[in-house]
Amino acid sequence: MTPGLILRPLLILLLLALVLRPEWFIPLFAPLAPEGGPVIYTRSSLLSLSLSHLALVAAASAAATVVAVTLAILVTRPAGAAFRPLSRTITNMGQTFPPVAVLALAVPALGFGAGPTLVALFLYGLLPIFENAVTGLTTLPPATMEAARGIGLSRWQRLIKVELPLALPVTLTGIRLSVVIALGTATIGSTVAARTLGEVIIAGLLTSNTAFVLQGGLAVGLFAVLIYDALVQLERYLARRMGG
Amino acid sequence: MIEIDSITKAYGAIKAVDAVSMTVETGTITVIVGTSGSGKTTLLRMINRLEEPTSGEVRINGDSTLSVKPHILRRRIGYAIQGHGLFPHYTVARNIAAVPRLLNWPKDKIRARVDELLELFSMDPAQFRNRYPAELSGGQQQRVGVARALASRPDLLLMDEPFGALDPIIRTRAQEDLRHIQRRLGSTIMLVTHDMEEAIRLGDRVAVMDGGKLVQYAPPAEIIAKPATGFVADMVGDVERPLRLLSLVPLSEVVEDGAAEGEPLPADASLRDALSACLWTGRNAVPVMRDGATVGRVTLTAIRERAEMRA
User: Fold this and answer.
1) CA distance B64 to B111
2) Tens digit of pLDDT for each residue in A19-47?
3) pLDDT tens for each residue of A45-66
4) Whose CA is closest to A52, among A122, A94, A113?
5) Among the three residues B215, B237, B259, which one is the final residue of a domain in this structure?
6) A166: nearest CA in chain B?
7) Nearest to B191 by CA among B214, B218, B168, B164
């Protein structure tokens, strides 16, 4: 517990400094920049890139959550059970298809910018959420489900009041995996002109500027670690409340 | 009054419950007992329509259970099951309040009812109201499960092996509590068990099921003394019959004037308890107490005479 209590604020401060006051890091990154080249990326502010990066991930993950959880609910109803293998195949395909390929294929249809990245992140994020939501909804305690029916909850009430809340911790694990994958994958969106922290990394790679690569990489990494940690804490809290 | 009118549940050619008819009086405990596969649980689950009957019907106070939607019907019928089935994400108070909330009771009425029930089950409301089920012992979880089933003052309480998951000592205590609470509230209870001991201890009437058929429906003393079939006799157990019979008779029925040595027994203890006390301590009689005063004695001779009457 204690290492977390110290480490967490430190990482948050480091991330804030990196995004809001990148010039503080000039001494640190200077040895990595090419002779006479810029040390700190200034073409856009790291703050606006971070916000746009997070917004992309949030939008794609939210859409993936809605679609995956809805699908999971449908295929765990008696009437939808027959569609479970099919939906599994579809979400599996989303995961198998490399995001780069999706980007390349989506550009002709959606043009350059955020659109193709959203599609790629969305497709890539479906599977973990879907699988976990199905697991959560099919491993509910049988006595509780029997009692829920027996005391007079309607189908809808059972879903909203019992099934979804009880499946929430497991579903949240899927969402966490999906969000963290999306945070990393979003960087390649900048190859098709989406505004993400990947822009800094790509600029660094194109100009052989390791300082840029490190700045972008560090920011993405810190976001991923901190968001992962926050979601783990949330899951633990929920699991504790349910006596896990 | 609950009238079960030739109710049948068929799965293909197999009849899990075969034309069972019985009437349950208001304010009594009816125990349905049978081996596994005898159809006892199916019979119970057809009363609140967790299983739909293939034919026949159930009437509660004259109204057919088929005249309302199943989930509406179930809100009027309490349901408690083995392993309690509490909602792990709700507090104790919210679990007990589940049905009153479905029925849109006002908030203060619900709160008062929750506290009343917790007190009835000897659980301090201030201490237990906001706990989660995982923070309770097995016996406490089971009590909350029964409290939840009673919360909306249902016309009928159905219990499916409610004490099955409890260890023997807590189970006896839970049975006594249920009996006590049922007497106090005047509830109508139908309870399923595979344990004849439990059926005899709790039931005002006992229904014995075998192969989907109701083979005997009678007060416990009659089940023990005059088993209708070999199956019922087997369930009662030949060796234990006299003891089971004695367990139904309170000391107050055979108490006589006179003194006896040793530890007294309360007047509502059974003759079986008295026999056990006599044998264990080598006495021929035990003193009987009521409200702290000795009111007489029960002798081994009296116990033997009572046992030989067989009813």
Assistant:
1) 32
2) 788 778 777 777 777 777 777 777 778 88
3) 888 888 989 999 999 999 999 9
4) A113
5) B237
6) B89
7) B164
For B117, the domain range is 2-237
Measured between beta carbons, which residues in chain B are less than 8 angstroms from residue A160? none
Residue A118: give its domain's CATH number: 1.10.3720.10
Q: How far apart are CA B45 and CA B188, in angstroms?
A: 16
A166 interfaces chain B, CB cutoff of 8 Å: yes
Asked if A243's CB is within 8 angstroms of B135's CB, the reply is yes
Residues 6+ apart with CB under 8 A from B48: A150, B65, B70, B73, B74, B77, B79, B158
Chain B residues with CB-CB distance to A165 below 8 A: 89
Question: With contacts defined as CB-CB under 8 Å, which chain A residues touch B51?
Answer: none
> Which strand ranges, in their side-by-side order, compose the sheet holding B213-218?
B77-81, B156-160, B189-193, B29-33, B205-210, B213-218
A160 vs B: CB within 8 A: no
- Residue B69 CB burial class (10 angstroms; 0-12, 13-18, ≥19): exposed
Q: Does A143 touch chain B (CB under 8 A)?
A: yes
Write out pLDDT tens, residues B188-198: 999 999 988 88
What chain A residue is nearest to B45 in terms of C-alpha separation? A150
Of A158, A151, A141, A140, the residue nearest B50 (C-alpha)? A151
In a domain, B242, yes or no: no
Kindly identify which residue of chain A lies nearest to residue B159, measuring between CA atoms: A150
* Nearest chain B residue to A169, by CA: B89
Instruction: Check whether B5 has a pLDDT greater than 80.
Output: yes
pTM of the model: 0.80
B285: nearest Cα among B307, B254, B239: B254
Domain membership flag for residue A157: yes
Q: Write the Ramachandran bin of B161: left for phi over 0, alpha for psi from -120 to 50, otherwise beta.
A: left
Confidence grade of residue B268 (pLDDT, cut at 50, 70, 90)? confident
Q: Which residues in chain A have Cβ-Cβ distances shorter than 8 Å to B41?
A: none
Residues on chain A touching B86 (C-beta within 8 angstroms) = 144, 147
Question: Does the interface ipTM go beyond 0.95?
Answer: no
pLDDT tens across A166-217, in order? 999 999 999 999 999 889 888 888 888 788 888 888 888 888 888 888 888 9
Return d(Cα A107, Cα A103) in angstroms, integer: 6
Do B79 and B122 share a domain, yes or no? Answer: yes
Query: How many angstroms separate the CA of residue B69 from the nearest CA in chain A?
Result: 10
Q: Out of A143, A162, A243, whose CB is closest to B84?
A: A143
